[in-house]
Write a structure and sequence with these properties.
The chain is mainly alpha-helical. It contains three helices and no strands. α2 crosses α3.
Length: 53
């Protein structure tokens, strides 16, 4: 599970995070993109990810 602790550990080692596919859940995609600030996502719903940027 990607959460704040996971992101902090990855950033401490200069690693990028690209979570794998999302269902059509805009609130979850926004959480990853805005709150956790992942580096990108792989998704089946690119329109949702673009709206979440």
């Amino acid at each position: 599970m990607v959460d704040g602790t996971f992101m902090a550990r990855m950033r401490a080692h200069d690693l990028k995070v690209y979570p794998w596919t999302f269902k059509n859940e805009p609130h979850e995609t926004r959480r990853f993109m805005r709150d956790l600030r992942v580096d990108g996502v792989f998704t089946n719903n690119p329109d949702v990810a673009l709206d979440a940027r």
